[in-house]
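Input (structure):
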């Protein structure tokens, strides 16, 4: 299958993208490995982590052949987009609409998850060529706001990010979202004592709640 479609299919089948935003590359890599062991097949490594591009390069080379989509997050411009694509990123994520970033990704046929909040931003992002639209931030409006946006825009693949947990993921899917982005619920499960096996357990628990919510 065409690579861009395969990546989108992986994200769609996963129903959840793991957002790895941590303090350094070493912890990010350990968390990513533990989450992959727990079943995650779509992960974004945010560029806010020093050395993130090398983490993307290593994870992508190691797990890409096994069907894991390794993306880059917090890709704010076309320069970062190109660098991440060259490092092997399977998809790019931004918290905002940046048409030049989306254009660069589409030039190389790499899918994008583009941040939006208002109906205007959602539609502009779709028109700019984004594949998936990330509802961000979610803390203020929450699930009721997502329902209001989705009422006229149910045809758009919307993925909320921020505050998604095993407790509320069912409600998010019931609101009509196409998938969810989850971060700290899984990526910080190793704290405070450094037991990374808890990340694997949190990943399994979260993905099983996603599967149940989508039945
Ligand atoms: O960039 C962070 C994402 O919005 C994830 O948020 P979260 O840690 O609340 O899941």
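Output (sequence):
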């Amino acid at each position: 299958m065409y690579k861009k479609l395969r990546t989108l299919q992986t994200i769609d089948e996963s129903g959840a993208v793991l957002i790895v935003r941590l303090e350094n590359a070493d912890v990010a890599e350990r968390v990513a490995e533990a989450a992959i062991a727990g079943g995650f097949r779509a992960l974004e490594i945010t560029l806010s982590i020093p050395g993130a591009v090398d983490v993307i390069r290593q994870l992508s080379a190691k797990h890409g052949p096994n069907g894991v989509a390794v993306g880059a997050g917090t890709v704010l411009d076309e320069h970062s987009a190109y660098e991440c694509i060259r490092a092997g990123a399977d998809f790019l994520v931004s918290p905002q609409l940046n048409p030049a970033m989306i254009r660069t990704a589409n030039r190389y046929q790499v899918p994008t998850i583009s941040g939006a909040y208002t109906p205007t931003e959602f539609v502009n992002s779709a028109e700019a060529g984004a594949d998936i639209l990330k509802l961000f931030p979610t803390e203020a409006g929450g699930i009721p706001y997502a329902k209001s946006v989705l009422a006229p825009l149910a045809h758009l693949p919307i993925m909320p990010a921020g505050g998604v947990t095993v407790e509320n993921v069912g409600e998010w899917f019931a609101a009509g979202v196409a998938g969810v982005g989850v971060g700290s619920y899984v990526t910080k499960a190793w704290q405070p004592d450094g037991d990374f096996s808890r990340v694997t357990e949190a990943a399994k628990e979260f993905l099983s709640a996603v599967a149940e919510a989508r039945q």
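Notes: Strands lie at 16-20, 42-46, 69-73, 92-94, 112-116, 132-135, 158-160, 180-182. The chain has a mean pLDDT of 97.
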